[in-house]
Each structure stands twice: as structure tokens, then as C-alpha cells.
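Predict the 3D structure for this chain.
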Amino acid sequence: MALSKVDLANQVENQLPQNLVANNLPFRNIIINGDMSIAQRATSATGIGNGDTGYHTLDRWKFFENDSPSYEFTMSQSTDVPSGQGFATSLKMDCTTAEATLAADDLAFLEQYIEGQNVQYLKKGTANAEYVTASFWVKSTKTGTFIVELVDLDNSRFTNFNYTVNASDTWEKKTVSFVPDTTGTLDNDNAASLLFRFGLLAGTTFSSGSPSPTTWLANSGNNAKRAANQVNIADNTANEWYITGVQLEAGTTASDFEFLPHDVNLRRCQRYFQFLSTYTGYGLGTTTVVNGYTNFPTMRTSPSISSTDVITVSDGVTTQFTQSSENIVIASDGSSETSANIQVKNLSGLTSRRNYSVIPNSTGKITLSAEL
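Done. Predicted structure below.
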């Protein structure tokens, strides 16, 4: 009797080495843009630090800092990558203003927030909770001990590992496995539930304890363990730190890095941030406002809008300009994950009910953000 397609597929899978099967599971990497290939905002940003927490260059990777330090970095997308591993880009942190002696409350991480609905299969907070394994390639001129941390944002718990950069200016692959946590389930929604982060520097308030590789701890009362033993990559302007090939997956073994097609990777990033290139609006019975609905690829939630530089508002005959970011807003009747009613305000001389194109100039941008 002929085998069905399902039976044949199962038979083939059962005959394959288990590591080969695991290495081909689709979307096993919880991290988005782990190969550092998508940089919608910019490929380089200066002055990172000194109170400048936020998203700056590579998609999904946020710079976090505590206190008000004096150090600064340039964050950039680099073509310096581990040889022969298939990567084309990495994220680079280059110290441009040093702070050799950190204040006690200084703390800096590179981090990524993860939606709860994307990690329900980790079964956190149950008797069947999974191990979670992180693997990544790192290169640093500064050798020594670094921290990598996994944080449960829903239940204020964390676990972390130290890893060691052994050789200066050399790509090294690191793998750590975070233990299961049977306490605290993750919310099944589109809000941030997990936080994965790499330590960059830490003052004594956060670095004087020991890491917690064998258990999860409550955030409260354990600050000294949050960045235990972390070196300071901001202590010299010669310091550079690179990261790529970041993968976070269920299980105790790191599989080969999951390379996704560029368009798939870009679309995953656009769920959180994207540019609005152009849209058509119309006059609202006023000579000062253009109003129009526009659709865009589905985002995590209804986005906020911002703009930079000059935006052209044109009916093909006459042209108006708006330059201030507060002039482009989402109208009071709101937006959804796929569309928004966008207004351009404070114009003059428009014709009521006439169609207008809203187009960023060469240096202008209209951005939609649903970041975690």
C-alpha cells in the first residue's frame, strides 16, 4: 500500500540524524535580526550614551543605560564578521568618549524585547518549563568577563551567565543555556514578556555580586547580581565590541544559526518599526489640513507617528511644505495595526476636498513605531 505524504515525511524525518532535523526547524530563533542585517533607521549613530537610551540603528536592538554617564559610543552596522560562517554584518559599539571610572549606578546593555505570545512554547512557570539556549559570535578589543541575561518582565525575575572574551580583536562563538523556571507564567499577548540582553559595562551597584546561572532570582534585592563581574568597555576610546549571529532557542543545544531571506527578516522588523514612503490625502473643508487614511504592513499594535525634515504636500500643481514633526499626527479617530488616519497640519492655501500627495523629501522621513 502506498504511503501518504504525511507518513512518507515522518518516515524520512525518522531516518535523519536528530541534529539535522533540529537544525532545520523553521523560526526556531526567538531573536529577530540576529544576523544584524536590517538597519532601517540608520547604519550608524554617534553620541550613544550620556542619557541616550533607545533604538538608534539596527532593528530590534535597543541601547539601555542607567544613571547619567559621560561615556559615549558610536553604534553602527559593520561588515566585520566571523570568517566562513555566512554572516555579512555585525553590530559594532565603538567607544568615542571614555569613562575609566564608573559611577556605582552606571549600567549599559544591548537588548531585545520579546512578545509573550511568541514564547508560550517555552512553558515557563509550569512543571514542563524548557531550557533556553543562547548562542552568538562576539569580538572585542577588551578581554575579560561579560554578562548575558534573560529577564522575565511579567514576573520580575532574571537569570544570567558570565562568558569570557579570551582573545582581543578575535571572533569567538559563545553558547549558554538558561535553566527552566517553573515559577511565573508569561502573558499570552503582544506586550513584552522576555528581555534578552548583553552587558557592556556596570558600576558596583550591579556588578559586585555573583551571576545566577543555575536558578532564577527575583529582581528585587538582587541588583548586585544583574551584571556580575562585567568589564567596562567604555574605559578607553580604543575599545570596540562586535556581536552577530545571535540565536535564542528552546532546548539545551545550540543549533546552526537560522538564516532567513532578507525580505522575511525585514518584514519581521517592520512589525515594530517602518517608514511610510508616501500617501494620498485630501483637504478637509479647510485650507490648512490634509487628511487621509493609509495602509501599511501589519504592526504589533497601533503605531505612533513621527517625521523629520521637510515633507512635500502637493496636488500636482501647487506645493506646500511642513517641516516640524508636530505637524504630522494620527487623527483623533485613530489607527489600527494595518492603517491610520494621518493628518498634516498648519499648512496654508489648500483647496477643500482636493487630493494631495504627501511625500518625504530626500532627507525627510515619516516613521511608524510599535516598538516594545
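The chain has two domains: 25-270, 273-369.
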